[in-house]
Design a protein that fits this description.
Layout lengths: L4 H25 L25 H17 L4 H24 L14 H11 L7 H36 L1
Length: 168
């Protein structure tokens, strides 16, 4: 059984758009946005999700990923499914990281990438005709790309985090 390279590449591209669009938008926008959790603090005294998970970030991912799917010749619904899965994985990761006591925007290799790429793959993999090996490749490739780009994101957000610390 041969891999479905074009479908694998398309899914990987959509996962990258879904996860990358919010970060790129935040960098371009420069300002802070309201946190998705509204600043809610849970029983453990920690934020539910943290300040880096914003309404704008969610909206940008849900809007741009379906457009990217259309650009790839796929149905926009498939792009929306990828965005919803990626954002669900991202929010789950943030929730778990806060429970572990990790501050917002802290890198947690593998934990940061696995849900954000596996959940969308599980949601649309069958539609694209992808099997478990194909999904494993998408998750691995996304993890490699994300880990390679994470230092750049930390560098670009460092000044904003310092400014937040000074003002808050």
């Amino acid at each position: 059984m041969s891999p479905h390279w074009s479908q694998i590449v398309m899914l990987l591209a959509l996962v990258l758009v879904a996860n990358g669009a919010p970060a790129l938008f935040a960098l371009l926008r420069g300002g802070r946005s309201r946190p998705l959790d509204g600043g809610l603090v849970l029983w453990d005294g920690r934020p539910m999700l943290g300040r880096s998970k914003t309404r704008w970030g969610l909206a940008v991912s849900l809007a741009l990923t379906p457009l990217a799917a259309l650009a790839l010749g796929l149905d926009w619904h498939l792009g929306l499914g990828v965005a919803m899965g990626a954002m669900a994985g991202d929010l789950l990761t943030s929730f778990v990281k806060r429970r572990l006591g990790l501050p917002s925007s802290t890198s947690a290799p593998i934990l940061d990438q696995m849900p954000e790429s596996l959940i969308p793959g599980l949601l649309v993999g069958e539609t694209l005709g992808l099997g478990w090996l194909d999904l494993a490749f998408v998750v691995s490739a996304f993890t490699a790309v994300d880990l390679a780009l994470t230092p750049l994101g930390g560098w670009s957000g460092r000044g904003r985090r310092r400014q937040d610390e000074r003002s808050g």
